[in-house]
Amino acid sequence: MISQNGKERRPLTLQRDKLWYKDAVIYQLHVRTFCDSNADGIGDFAGLTQRLDYLQDLGITAIWLLPFYPSPLRDDGYDIADYTSVHASYGSLEDFKTFLTAAHNRGMRIIIEMVLNHTSDQHPWFKEARSSRENPRRDWYVWSETDTRYQGVPIVFVDTETSNWAWDPISKSYYWHRFFSHQPDLNFDNPAVFEAVWDVMKFWLNIGVDGFRLDAVAYLVEREGTLCESLPETHAIIRELRRRLDLAYPGTMLLAEANQWPADVRAYFGDGDEFHAAFHFPLMPRMFMAVKLEDRKPIIEILEQTPEIPDSCQWFIFLRNHDELTLEMVTDVERDYMYDEYAMDTAMRINRGIRRRLAPMMNNDRRRIELLNGLLMSMPGTPIVYYGDEIGMGDNIYLGDRNGVRTPMQWNSALNAGFSLADPERLYAPVISNAVYGYQAVNADSQNRSEHSLLRWMKSLLQVRNAFQVFSRGTIQFLNPSNHRVLAYTRQFGEETVLVVNNLSSSAQAVELDVQRYKGYIPIEMFGRNLFPRLGNLPYLLTLGPYQFYWFQLRRI
Amino acid sequence: MAEDVFLADDLLRQLMSVGEVDLLVGLSSCNAANTVSHALDAIEESFQRNFARQRAVVVNVGGDKDEDAVVAQGYGSLAKKGVRLPGITSLRTSHRVTANFSGPPSPGIALRTILAAADLLRARACAVVSPDASILTPDSIASLLRPVYREKFDFVAPLYTRNKYQGLLARNLLYPMSRALFGSGIRELFSDDWGFSGRLAALCLNQDVWHQDAIRARPEAWMAISAISSDFRCCQTFLGEKSKAIKSSGTDIVEILRQTVGTLFWCLETQQSSWLDCEKSQTVPTFGPDHEFTSEPTDLDRHRIFEMFRSGVTELEPILSSILDPETHSEIKSIVLLEEANFRFKSDIWVRTLYDFAASYHHAVINRDHLIQTLAPLYRGMTYSFLVEHADSSPSEMEAASEMLCMEFKLQKPYLVERWKAKVEVKS
After folding, report:
1. Is pLDDT at A1 greater than 50 in this prediction?
2. CA A252 → CA A93, A109, A238, A258, distances in Å?
3. Mean pLDDT, to the nearest integer, of A402-422?
4. H-helix segments, A59-123
5. Which of A159, A437, B236, B280 could pair with B183 as two cysteines, CB 3.0-4.6 Å apart?
6. What is the mean pLDDT of residues A29-49?
């Protein structure tokens, strides 16, 4: 990697920086989707390990793995039946350890999913708990003789569930579940439960994982007369987890999954003593909106509403992920607009979101895909790249649920896109095979060989991003030029200053930037390292092509 | 020789920043600095409530920088204050551009500036509104824009709730005459608020008329007639109550006639090809009620109006003789002699009088400005007659009378055409 001064920078893992998650570029994947080493049609850890060089070459510094635990897979693995093992389809625990070591050797951290709020009803804990009212694990879950406790608490999956209580015919009582009825909630009022989940976390920390994404953290504790969300008792549990983590495993991190407004998520950072990081959900749809509207307003508006967070904390930002592009954190007007512009076909919509990948949403317009990635990599926060988006993979909206964005990774133009040697019929999901996004047209190998491919471009983008900590740790200041189609901001961290100028529109734009405070600085275009005219008293005039963006390093020489 | 560039560089720079828009609302903040803030908030709210997805801009034609500063504080204040209207989200940046002039610009210059902005920004739907009109509400602004943006109309004229004695000039002259001649009836040819399409803006902008006196003062009727003449789609939309003071009876009647009738006559002159042989008669679609009256008492001094009619006609008799056809003149002279209680200005004489004036304007038998001034006492006579005749009329009776007058104008159109085409020896 190249540093600002042209010196080689050491891989992040070797620095043992406790704030590594702030500088990371994260790659999100499900092991099932990435590479199948044993020709059973399902991706596995051995296959993933084989592909780590690809991720290292791309510039990835951390991998976020979706659930890989033994599970009935009735909720895509978020219904865990065994916290301390690996689903047989994906390999063994040994395979995981091998993968982890290989990733660390390549300077990549590993973040895994941890579902604390609930288990599968197939988990031994629940089987014991329901077996009799006298069972020692009975109190590990939330039971009731009636289904009238906690009235008024919203139901999350309104399409499938009619109540947060489910009747257990075995022990003849009701159990509490905020999600599917096959996912009973753990009872965190029982100290034994807390100790049990801490044991689970220790198990993985001792193996060497670097962090956890804690699923559904808002719902850990229930109290009568409340919405049973984000209660003080829940925060107390998180603080205790964090305290133990810092004490025993310094340098590991907790990532919160809380699809809420930034002001509400803020509480999960505490005083820097709860989560290290949390997703910034509302920013994501607004980046899409800004590009379609050709107007910077949505982005600036949401970032201005984003509260300050403790120095040690970080927002995690993303364009797409394994779920639908969630439109929970937008207004009705904004949601309708997003649907009309990005999901005209109702088959593209699911729940309150859009089940499409990045490239199809951009109509495969390379310039817009680049612009959005440029925004992602230059905004404050740690960026997450969803697997396959770095090559512009397409989706299959006819696969049901969110499976259309979870198709096999497209490695090459060989059988099954190079994902598996199994018969195509045996694959966990069909590969994308249409003329535009099919694996013959879109795959990693061919893009690696093409100088101007999206993949090669992404590599150069990440190379620049990784070379400057200002992107990951710097403050942001918007310039607000009169041309609203141009989003311009400076990022500053220590002596590092960069100027980012984005043309959000489909046409060429001229913009005058008020950069008087940087008078005397020389802008250096960060991809080509070309010098631009020195900044002075006058507004700095730039012209940008459609969807073009500039990253300038500002140097005072 | 080509005219110097019209748009100031400063305005051009602002327009560059705005880029292409869907909606444009123009207003002049001259002499209205105290009300313009309200107007700008109403426009912004209208955009948010009704056109959340559309790219929109306000073009404010101001007199000087001080007013601009007042305006700048006003517009966008909702957003700046963090005010979110209930259930409303503005998706886009609110834009306002300001055109500053060294002195108060004429309405013609203001409109030309707005049209130029609309053309350069490729606006699809535009409106001009008056910042000092209390009628200005988010809904009224949307009512002007919506027919253009959604229904593809090119010109949207307003309709107002009127006191029955308001708008007499429009009711007795401008509306029926323009309807009869151009075949398309727009009730409010002269108004402070109207809407138009980008393509009509482009058509009007490119006309070589902007140095004309008629355009400088009241360009809106010319724009409406241009739309009708060019077969653009026109409609009317109901905006509610027009609250401005009645202007039709005061001492400024000559100036009002100069601005309105003078402009109408000028339009007849410049667009004669579109009405001389025009036989069309089409109904203008209307959004909302097509008329609405209130009946508050009026303080018009009928006796004074009648006396001004009588004295005016007597004093101007020599000039009238050069304007009016002898037969018409004779009729006028005979009704002047009537007692006030028995006085009526019959519609056929009124129509013929106006057609004589229009023809004489065309032939420039006398100075055109003097000609318009000479119409003032006759208009007063018509006004007096109307006030007496309709003192107790219901709205439907008044509307029926209005229709009859329109028919009279239509019936006598051949008379005007004949006089218009006749060769006339101009008296010096």
Report:
1. no
2. 20, 10, 14, 20
3. 97
4. 93-105
5. B280
6. 98
Give catalytic residue positions of A.
215, 257
Reported CATH class of domain A124-176: alpha beta
Here the tokens at position B374 are 């000479």
Cβ A536 vs Cβ A519: under 8 Å: yes
Per-residue pLDDT of B35-76, as tens digits, reads 788 888 899 999 999 999 999 999 999 855 555 555 554 444
Per the structure block, which two tokens stand in for A217?
Answer: 């953290």
pLDDT in tens, A293-312: 999 999 999 999 999 999 99
Same structural domain for residues B236 and B320?
A: no
Of B294, B320, B354, which closes a domain? B294
Last residue of a domain, one of B294, B327, B362: B294
CA atoms within 13 A on the CB side of A138: 14
User: ipTM of this model?
Assistant: 0.74
CA–CA dist A29, A66 (Å, integer): 6
CB contact under 8 A, A297 and B93: yes
What percentage of chain A has pLDDT greater than the value 90?
93
Which residues of chain B make contact with A297, given a CB cutoff of 8 A? 90-93
Task: Provide the CA B165 distance to its chain's centre, in angstroms.
Answer: 18
In chain A, where the domains are located: 16-118+191-466, 124-176, 474-555
What letter represents residue B273's amino acid? S
Q: Which one has a higher pLDDT value, A550 or A400?
A: A550
Residues of B in contact with A298 (CB under 8 A): 91
- Minimum-distance CB partner of B91 among A298, A482, A507: A298
Instruction: Find, in chain B, the residue whose alpha carbon is nearest to that of A513.
Output: B17
Name, in order, each residue with C-beta under 8 angstroms of B383's C-beta and a sequence gap of 6 or more: B168, B172, B248, B249, B305
Comparing CB atoms, the residue among B16, B87, B93 nearest residue A295 is B93
Distance of CA A331 to the CA centre of its chain: 22
**Per-residue pLDDT tens over the stretch A55-92:** 999 999 999 999 999 999 999 999 999 999 999 999 99
Whether residue B18 and residue A298 make contact (CB cut-off 8 A), yes or no, is no
Please tell me the pTM assigned to this model.
0.85
Provide the pLDDT for residue A557. 85
Q: How far is CA B392 from CA B161, B167, B388, B397, in A?
A: 18, 17, 9, 9
- B-interface mutation test, from A286, A288, A291, A293, most B Cβ less than 10 A away: A293
Residue B374 and residue B408 in one domain: yes
* Residue B33 pLDDT greater than 90, yes or no: no
Residue B213 scores a pLDDT above 70: yes
Residues B285 and B309 occupy one common structural domain: no
pLDDT of residue B283: 87
* Cβ within 8 Å of residue A398, ≥6 positions away: A347, A404
A chain contacts of residue B9, beta-carbon cutoff 8 Å: none
Q: Nearest CA of chain A to the CA of B245: how many Å?
A: 40
Q: Which of A296, A331, A505 sits opposite B89 (nearest CB)?
A: A331
pLDDT of residue B4: 63
Interface test mutation site (partner B, options A482, A486, A544, max chain B beta carbons within 10 A): A482
Q: Which residues of B touch A (CB under 8 A)?
A: 13-14, 16-19, 52-53, 55, 87-93, 95
β strands within A152-307, DSSP E? 165-168, 173-176, 211-215, 253-256, 277-279
CB B18 within 8 A of CB B122: no
The whole domain housing B66 covers 9-294
Residues B320-364: pLDDT tens digits?
999 999 999 999 999 999 999 899 999 999 999 999 999 999 999
Q: Which two tokens stand for residue A211?
A: 């962090």
Q: Do B16 and A297 touch (CB under 8 A)?
A: no
* Res B82: pLDDT: 47
CATH superfamily membership of A16-118+191-466: Glycosidases (3.20.20.80)
pLDDT at A223 over 70: yes
Nearest-CA distance B167 → chain A (Å): 41
